[in-house]
């Protein structure tokens, strides 16, 4: 899945060397989401990287749920994450794995550390513990419970595990160094009491390992050779290494960090995306405005375009923000090549062809795609009454307006040339109908008088079409960096991020449109049928993206 032309990135170089020099026999990576929300476009970068490297180097990539916090996790998220990874086109090695599969082993290793005098039960409450921890500038202080004997610690940890103590009353901490400059090494908590059922292990446990204690050891258990994570975990590496060095683990994973994806006009944080859902700014995690994988899918974005986007942005160790226009470019590029063409009138204006027989319908045919001959030809019913776009007609206009003007001609796309003869208005003075004459000698050829109309407009039969609703999405945020600084990102939500049009008229073939399959509605953009709303005879179409490509234009300046 890597393009041949692109130079190798630092992780590809590291892996190639590790394999060449025999430090690693087989590349094993993993994608380790916490099931506390749906995956977003940032996760796609990590997925494409981890699975992509495994594919490239003939290794394997595991899908492991890092499920150490039952308070925030749910089975719904587990299911959504599996669906999203598969949809992106990747296959994990073997069964789905869970950190909770290793809770027994992790618990034994916690006891092992106690036995080695390297972990102790501490009764400081959260506030006291914070005080004892010190700051970036000042060292911490030893907990008064730090010198408990091995026997006492074993007993207390057994009683913690048996549920004898209340949540928050004590925890198990690694005994490392309260004066360490790296705060992560100041006797971090490795087990906490949480009297809470877990989505995988049920009521079995009332103590749970911390993420930091579980993460590296889970990698070791799975034989992960290259444990790839984002830069914010760089400071945790000395702690992960400490655990690995002080425990009888079966393997030694090596951690490598890369920069997270930041996208402008977007937030990529499950916590914030959850807030948008919970506070009703959007209609669920898969709302087509959301930068989640499921939202993008429902909007009509293809997995190939997300993979292409991840390829384009590359992998580095320096944080930067990517222009969302680059994602839009990848989406448009894929749809342009693959989406069948169709016509849909968003804001219909009635056109009556006065010289066309009442009740007659002829079937015209149109190509499925301008160059893709494998896409089937469309059948377009042509009748006396049609719809065109309101904005495609004017009573008067200058020469720049290449559409239908009173007493002028225009070509109907894939059909005949018509001329506007008369305008009908309602009492409010609004145009409700245009009466035209059709030149039936113009199918696939110029009019006999040799005067070629300048404009081509789209249309749909008024008698034989699909009545539908169309949802036009705009950016979810109108601030380029909605969550940078002290801002409340919710205040940057674009109030005009959705326009719903009803009574739109699509060509009849779109009655069969499959949900999430992209079409180009000629002159209007790329659309797909919504998978959640609409009925069989009244579909809802989502605009995936407009036709215009402002990003590429910027690049060519
Ligand atoms: P969030 O802040 O959205 O909750 P997270 O890092 O806590 O993100 P995890 O479920 O722990 O989410 O992430 C799983 C994997 O995806 C991790 O390896 C993480 O580093 C990676 N990941 C998460 N967000 C991004 C991002 N924006 N860019 C690249 N990788 C990411
Ligand atoms: Mg997280």
Automatic annotation (TrEMBL):
<feature type="binding site">
    <location>
        <position position="66"/>
    </location>
    <ligand>
        <name>L-glutamine</name>
    </ligand>
</feature>
<feature type="binding site">
    <location>
        <begin position="40"/>
        <end position="46"/>
    </location>
    <ligand>
        <name>ATP</name>
    </ligand>
</feature>
<dbReference type="InterPro" id="IPR020058">
    <property type="entry name" value="Glu/Gln-tRNA-synth_Ib_cat-dom"/>
</dbReference>
<comment type="similarity">
    <text>Belongs to the class-I aminoacyl-tRNA synthetase family.</text>
</comment>
<keyword id="KW-0547">Nucleotide-binding</keyword>
<keyword id="KW-0030">Aminoacyl-tRNA synthetase</keyword>
<dbReference type="GO" id="GO:0016874">
    <property type="term" value="F:ligase activity"/>
</dbReference>
<feature type="domain" description="tRNA synthetases class I (E and Q) anti-codon binding">
    <location>
        <begin position="456"/>
        <end position="530"/>
    </location>
</feature>
<dbReference type="InterPro" id="IPR014729">
    <property type="entry name" value="Rossmann-like_a/b/a_fold"/>
</dbReference>
<feature type="domain" description="Glutamyl/glutaminyl-tRNA synthetase class Ib catalytic">
    <location>
        <begin position="27"/>
        <end position="336"/>
    </location>
</feature>
<feature type="short sequence motif" description="'HIGH' region">
    <location>
        <begin position="33"/>
        <end position="43"/>
    </location>
</feature>
<feature type="binding site">
    <location>
        <begin position="260"/>
        <end position="261"/>
    </location>
    <ligand>
        <name>ATP</name>
    </ligand>
</feature>
<dbReference type="InterPro" id="IPR022861">
    <property type="entry name" value="Gln_tRNA_ligase_bac"/>
</dbReference>
<keyword id="KW-0436">Ligase</keyword>
<dbReference type="Pfam" id="PF03950">
    <property type="entry name" value="tRNA-synt_1c_C"/>
</dbReference>
<dbReference type="InterPro" id="IPR049437">
    <property type="entry name" value="tRNA-synt_1c_C2"/>
</dbReference>
<dbReference type="InterPro" id="IPR011035">
    <property type="entry name" value="Ribosomal_bL25/Gln-tRNA_synth"/>
</dbReference>
<dbReference type="InterPro" id="IPR004514">
    <property type="entry name" value="Gln-tRNA-synth"/>
</dbReference>
<dbReference type="InterPro" id="IPR000924">
    <property type="entry name" value="Glu/Gln-tRNA-synth"/>
</dbReference>
<dbReference type="InterPro" id="IPR050132">
    <property type="entry name" value="Gln/Glu-tRNA_Ligase"/>
</dbReference>
<feature type="binding site">
    <location>
        <begin position="34"/>
        <end position="36"/>
    </location>
    <ligand>
        <name>ATP</name>
    </ligand>
</feature>
<keyword id="KW-0648">Protein biosynthesis</keyword>
<feature type="binding site">
    <location>
        <begin position="268"/>
        <end position="270"/>
    </location>
    <ligand>
        <name>ATP</name>
    </ligand>
</feature>
<comment type="subunit">
    <text>Monomer.</text>
</comment>
<protein>
    <recommendedName>
        <fullName>Glutamine--tRNA ligase</fullName>
        <ecNumber>6.1.1.18</ecNumber>
    </recommendedName>
</protein>
<dbReference type="InterPro" id="IPR020061">
    <property type="entry name" value="Glu_tRNA_lig_a-bdl"/>
</dbReference>
<feature type="binding site">
    <location>
        <position position="211"/>
    </location>
    <ligand>
        <name>L-glutamine</name>
    </ligand>
</feature>
<keyword id="KW-0963">Cytoplasm</keyword>
<dbReference type="Pfam" id="PF20974">
    <property type="entry name" value="tRNA-synt_1c_C2"/>
</dbReference>
<dbReference type="InterPro" id="IPR001412">
    <property type="entry name" value="aa-tRNA-synth_I_CS"/>
</dbReference>
<dbReference type="InterPro" id="IPR020059">
    <property type="entry name" value="Glu/Gln-tRNA-synth_Ib_codon-bd"/>
</dbReference>
<feature type="binding site">
    <location>
        <position position="230"/>
    </location>
    <ligand>
        <name>ATP</name>
    </ligand>
</feature>
<dbReference type="InterPro" id="IPR020056">
    <property type="entry name" value="Rbsml_bL25/Gln-tRNA_synth_N"/>
</dbReference>
<dbReference type="Pfam" id="PF00749">
    <property type="entry name" value="tRNA-synt_1c"/>
</dbReference>
<feature type="domain" description="Glutamyl/glutaminyl-tRNA synthetase class Ib anti-codon binding">
    <location>
        <begin position="339"/>
        <end position="439"/>
    </location>
</feature>
<keyword id="KW-0067">ATP-binding</keyword>
């Amino acid at each position: 899945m890597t393009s041949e032309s692109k130079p190798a990135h630092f992780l590809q170089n590291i892996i190639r060397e590790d394999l060449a020099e025999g430090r690693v026999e087989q590349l094993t990576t993993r994608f380790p989401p916490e099931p506390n929300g749906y995956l977003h476009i940032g996760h796609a970068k990590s997925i494409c990287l981890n699975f992509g490297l495994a594919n490239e180097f003939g290794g394997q990539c595991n899908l492991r749920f890092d499920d150490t916090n039952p308070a925030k996790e749910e089975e719904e998220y587990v299911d959504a994450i599996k669906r999203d990874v598969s949809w992106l086109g990747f296959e994990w090695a073997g069964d789905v794995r869970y950190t909770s599969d290793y809770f027994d082993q992790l618990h034994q290793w916690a006891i092992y550390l106690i036995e080695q005098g390297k972990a102790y039960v501490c009764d400081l409450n959260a506030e006291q513990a914070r005080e004892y921890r010190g700051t970036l500038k000042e060292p911490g202080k030893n907990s008064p419970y730090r010198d408990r004997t091995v026997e006492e610690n074993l007993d207390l940890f057994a009683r913690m595990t048996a549920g004898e103590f209340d949540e928050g009353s004590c925890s198990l901490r690694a005994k490392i160094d309260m004066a360490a400059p790296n705060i992560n090494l100041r006797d971090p908590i490795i087990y906490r009491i949480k009297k809470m059922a877990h989505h995988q292990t049920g009521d079995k446990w009332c103590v749970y390992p911390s993420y930091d204690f579980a993460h590296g050891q889970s990698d070791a258990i799975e034989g992960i050779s290259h444990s790839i994570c984002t830069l914010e975990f760089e400071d945790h590496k000395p702690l992960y290494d400490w655990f690995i060095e002080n425990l009888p683990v079966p393997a030694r994973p090596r951690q490598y960090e890369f920069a997270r994806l930041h996208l402008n006009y977007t937030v990529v944080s499950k916590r914030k995306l959850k807030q948008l859902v919970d506070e009703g700014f959007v209609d669920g995690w898969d709302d087509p405005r959301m930068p989640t994988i499921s939202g993008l899918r429902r909007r009509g974005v293809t997995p190939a375009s997300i993979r292409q986007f991840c390829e384009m942005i590359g992998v580095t160790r320096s944080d930067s923000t990517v222009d969302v226009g680059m994602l839009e470019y990848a989406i448009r590029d894929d749809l342009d090549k693959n989406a069948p063409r169709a016509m849909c009138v968003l804001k219909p204006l009635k056109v009556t062809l006065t010289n066309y027989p009442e009740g007659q319908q002829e079937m015209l045919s149109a190509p499925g795609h301008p160059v893709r001959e494998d896409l089937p030809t469309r059948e377009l019913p042509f009748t006396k009454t049609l719809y065109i776009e309101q904005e495609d007609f004017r009573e008067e206009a200058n020469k720049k307006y290449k559409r239908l003007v009173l007493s002028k001609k225009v070509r109907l796309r894939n059909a005949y040339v018509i001329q506007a003869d008369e305008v009908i208005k309602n009492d409010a003075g609004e145009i409700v109908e245009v009466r035209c004459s059709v030149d039936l000698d113009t199918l696939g050829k110029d009019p006999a008088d040799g005067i070629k109309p300048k404009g081509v407009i789209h249309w749909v039969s008024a008698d034989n079409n699909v009545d539908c609703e169309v949802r036009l999405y705009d950016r979810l945020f109108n601030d380029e960096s909605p969550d940078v600084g002290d801002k409340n990102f919710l205040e940057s939500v674009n109030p005009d991020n959705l326009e719903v049009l009803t009574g739109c008229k699509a060509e009849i073939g779109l009655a069969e449109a499959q949900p999430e399959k992209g079409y180009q509605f000629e002159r209007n953009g790329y659309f797909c049928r919504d998978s959640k709303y609409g009925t069989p005879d009244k579909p809802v179409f989502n605009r995936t993206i407009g036709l215009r490509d402002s990003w590429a234009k910027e690049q060519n300046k």
